[in-house]
């Protein structure tokens, strides 16, 4: 839930794919084919049907030959997300980011994101709203006394923000693997799901098998922290099977 300090307006997370490499799947397929061919791209492109392209990409990805996917990129715009989310998002380093600046944009009556766990209990929701209102008043007072860049230090991670970011396709597969896992926090998992919907419209073959490893490989690598959705669980460090079944979801 997204709300405004002092009010109870609601809005949904918005994620849009605003730009991408033209013909992304063709680009990846031709780049990969070039590695194994004595002829150039024009000859490779001739008589290379969409069916040929799809079969080739499926084989390429299944073999783990992913470097050609770095030739195509996808640019997203997201709104109605928290600073807590973007702090996690920017940890994905093979990407580019442009975020709304709290140094230059005043945050009077800032919008904020309310976690579902807080929404579910009237007492926690009331406490959360009171705290946001107090911070809002403190920020507005400070912003009149000191520069905005210093007043912003009082703002919460719940603050709504807007961000534009670009990933190449290989980095996106890695992002989806980690952030569609049930161990990822709810907000960035929601973001990842919306992003995946967007890219699948433009490159359905490239992202056909995108997602957490429990769905794409039938294996979880989270060790004892696994949520238990699949029966085979491995430790990332050793690769050895740790538990076969019956692992409870942490916190349940």
Description:
- With 252 residues, this protein is α+β, with helices and mostly antiparallel strands.
- It has two domains: 1-21 and 72-211, Gyrase A, domain 2 (2-Layer Sandwich); 213-252, no CATH class.
- Helices cover 40% and strands 17% of the residues.
- It has ten helices and eight strands.
- It has helices at residues 24-34, 41-45, 50-62, 83-89, 116-119, 122-145, 148-151, 169-179, 186-202, 213-216, and strands at residues 2-4, 14-20, 73-82, 95-99, 111-113, 160-168, 233-234, 241-243.
- The strands form three sheets. It has a four-stranded antiparallel beta sheet.
- β7 and β8 form a beta hairpin.
- α1 packs across α3 (50-62).
Strand order in the largest sheet: 2-3-6-4
What is the residue-averaged pLDDT? 90
Task: Flag low-confidence runs.
Answer: 238-252
Biggest β-sheet strands, sense, barrel: 4 strands, antiparallel
Shape: elongated
Output the CATH class name of the largest domain.
Alpha Beta
Total count of domains = 2
CATH topology of the largest domain: Gyrase A, domain 2
How far is the N terminus from the C terminus? Answer: 24 Å
Which structural class best describes the helix and strand composition? alpha+beta
Tell me the strand percentage band.
15-25%
> How many beta-strand runs?
8
Number of helices: 10
Radius of gyration computed on alpha carbons: 22 Å
- At CATH's second level, what is the architecture of the largest domain? 2-Layer Sandwich
Helix and strand string, N-terminal first?
EEHHHEHEEHHHEHHHEE
**Percent in helix:** 25-40%
